[in-house]
Amino acid sequence: MVREDGRIPVSQAALLRRINRRLVVNGEKLRRTRGKKAVAQMGSWHVLDIRARRVVDGHVDIEELAREIGVLREWEFLAKE
Question: So where are the chain's domains?
């Protein structure tokens, strides 16, 4: 469904798959944080180093990350679910 301004919505699930396909090359994965205490410490999303099994980055804005790594184009946006 294309909006009047020509922007195309991308679902959160699709964006997550795009991001993880790009991050896996560096041995990383974007994960949703579980648990109230963990969310308070790391935010809703965090990047995990798969090999070392440690958090590389916390408080991740997935739309911003997707734009930084080039998997979300300027004519696309994260659809609110």
Answer: 8-75
